[in-house]
Amino acid sequence: MDDYSIQATLSAIAPALRRDYVFMELKANWLAEERKRALARFPAADFKRVAVVLMGEPAPDYKARVHEMLLKEKVEKVGWERDRKREEERRRKWEEKEEQKRQDAGKEDGEEKAEDKEAAAEEKEEAAEAADEPVELTEEEKQQWHRKLSTPDISDGSLARAFT
Known about the structure:
The protein has 164 residues and is mainly alpha-helical. It folds into two domains: 5-53, no CATH class; 62-142. Helix content is 63%, strand content 0%. The chain is elongated and about 90 Å long. The two termini are 27 Å apart.
């Protein structure tokens, strides 16, 4: 796979299959001679050749879709963090109760009832605290036109070689 053998095989077979293809080669599509060589493999009589290029400010519907995706990711992340914090809090309270049970093994019933009331009050506070606050995009996030992904579209080395 590292020697691009699969890519070479698909490139050789693709023109003969007459199917729809998305040819996503960033480096190759930047260079005019590479684009011409790639287009020559797909005859215009058999394939409709379409290029979509994004330059400048994107359309408002695209920006709205990106903002929706950013908000969805943020809501998922906040939800995951809330679940994690709730689980940690439950675990901590359970450990405290177990410790209290060990210590209170010799106490009377009246004292235990008072502790149960305190525990109920703490649970009410937790429920009020757990009320979900609405998640919104920050001003900086609203200014973004594109999502920033964890993996780059093209390596730094390829980018540098293409423009030297």
